[in-house]
Amino acid sequence: MKNILIPGLLLAIISITACRKIDSDPVFGQRPDERLMEILEKADQQLKSSEFGYQAYLFPSEGGNGGFAFYVKFDPNNRVQMYSDINASTSSQVGSSSYRLKAIQTPSLFFDTYNYMHVLSDPDNPLGIGGRAVGNYGDFEFSIDSTKGDTIHLTGNKQKSPFVLVKASQADANFYKNNGLYRLDSTLRDYMTNATFLYVEDAKSGNYAFSLNADTRVVSLSRVEGGEVVSLNTEYALAPYGLYLNKAITIGGVSYRYIYWDAATKSLYFKNGDTRINIKNGTTAIIPFWRYIGVDFNSLVINDSPMDGWSTDFTTKWNAARVAMLNGPYTLRMGYLFLTFNKDVKLMTINLFIYQGANQFLATYPYSYTVTEDGVFKFKKAGDPNGNGGLIAANMAPLLNHIENDRFTTDYFIHPVEGVMGMMKSVENPAFSFSTYTTNF
Amino acid sequence: MKKYIVAILSVCFAASVFTACSKNDDNLDIPLMYEGDKYAKNAIDTFIINEYIIPYNISVKFRWDPFEVPTNKFLVPVKEDVVIPVMTIVKQIWINPYEQMLGKGFIQKYAPKQYVLVGSANYNNDGTIVLGEAEGGRKITLYQLNKFDRKNVPFVKQMLHTIHHEFAHILHQTILYQREYKQITPGGYTATWYNTSNAQALALGFITPYARSNSDEDFVEMISTMLVEGKAGFDAIVNAQTPAARDLLRRKEALVSAYMLDKWKVDIYELQTITQAAIAQATN
């Protein structure tokens, strides 16, 4: 009797309890995927809600270069139109492709078939942008981070590139449709070629020298602080009003995200409220030339043929060296001469490119140097030349004698065609002076 | 008494079984968990539905999906305007010849079920690039399609070589090839096949460097090369070799054609002719 009763009771209990239906109403009122789809739908509506599309700025992550501007217009049926400042054609012809919103770990915006944006990620480098096999570290899948007013902030899922969408007005849209990006890029390049010493006033703690590199899309503000050149650098992307900066720049306690272009006066300015802070074109440099040596100018480069800024004395001696080499036992043609500075160990190496037929060789002469607070350089031999250098040491002597024995001042030199260059002048023999290109390698 | 209780319990139990767990079948038309995305279908989708999904149950993914491709590589999506040309040529040169000889059911049953299209090449660390790859006979990924040009015969052949290669894997995984095949060049297989040039591989009796990888790859490289190069192309490659290498390649060829005929009832030489005609027509 007991034998049956106990399992029987258990069975009865199980029958009563086991099939009690669990209350399946979700805590948040909807199933997770319904909520997810709702968020995606909302995001899609938001993207499509901007009648004239968006100004868009993409800053490829570390490893990539510069900042890139896009015009992006989201249309019904998952279509998107695009312009970009990558080159003349992407700026003048509209690119059309698909996009979609997808729930992965965060709600994400995918530009899911090829368009201009993908050029920055393309390992095949179709427009010559970026490195082979890696591209320019761009992104085309973005997590939607936040919306502030008319601005949507996104981050690339793969490379973490910041991507910003700002609602465009009709005027903005017209700017992009009329090839505005490419024209603004050309305008800025002309502006930089014609400018000499651009600066921004900071009455309190010293003016900044301003520079803009249209190739790498970087703006820099520099000044001397505590004996060192200090630079604020940030990438920029072109915008209907001028430049959108990847990181805000702080001048005199005020931080700026935009630089405006004034087409009437052909100049750039910052805006603090209603106050314009103009970027002015000066006649003298904010930062003495020598401060940049070994910092921005890692090498001063002497041309491979005489040019403006070479003194008669220098030209004569340079020519003597050139002719001696050419008529020497190795029939060498003299090429560019690099004065390469290593600021940390105070070493200056002369690297002279010489050519025998089509073969290139390098002659090197190492020097240590000292520099005074007035920017006077003094060089001292710091070892023997390399093999090639030794073979033409006698030919080079007229030039090297000055380097070894004289002191030198440096300054900017305004070349009629090349623009701002460098100039070195002997203190002891002022007739010995020459102009140089400047490079950062 | 005892029986009585047992009977009552049984009735209770039975009742509970029938009632307690009955689920009311209210609306079952609810979205799948984590469906993830929703988008408007366009003309390309219609093409894929009509040409691949309905007739063969093969899906073609051309919209970017980061989880379908290697995550450690730099890759970009395909251009919309190459999708239809690429998948048209795949149908012409791969599906149609088999279908013509073996009927629709054959492709429906054995073909890989998913194509993934990628715009750029897939770069390896050693500087080589991958143009196509397959997973488990189920999925084929095609790369560098943004450079696709219907009239670029080497490009088309390369792409189709990959597809025929992967499909041949499915064939031999379904019915294994002859044991003797593995004994033709047993000493030539190596894990470092990529150090072999084309000429070196051929001299050792392998139709491509990758054929040295193992006998399975050897077998499918034979099939795909025979089909993509055609009889004339294949003969030209083989006849240019030393007598010893030629003999090895011809023995492999004989086993491949015997296998296709015995196991799949396909005359590979006829399939070659049909495939060649398809390539000529498609790239014209």
TrEMBL record, chain A:
InterPro entries: DUF4302
Cross-referenced Pfam families: DUF4302 (PF14135)
Protein name as it appears in the record: Uncharacterized protein DUF4302
From TrEMBL, chain B:
Keyword Lyase attributed: no
Keyword Hydrolase: yes
Recorded coiled-coil stretches: none
Signal peptide: 1-19
Key words, A-Z: Hydrolase, Lipoprotein, Signal
PROSITE patterns: PROKAR_LIPOPROTEIN
One Pfam family hit: Peptidase_Mx1
Molecular function terms, GO-annotated: hydrolase activity
InterPro entries: LP_HExxH_w_TonB
Gene3D superfamilies: 3.40.390.70
NCBIfam families: LP_HExxH_w_tonB
The name this protein goes by in its record: Substrate import-associated zinc metallohydrolase lipoprotein
Organism the protein comes from: Chitinophaga skermanii
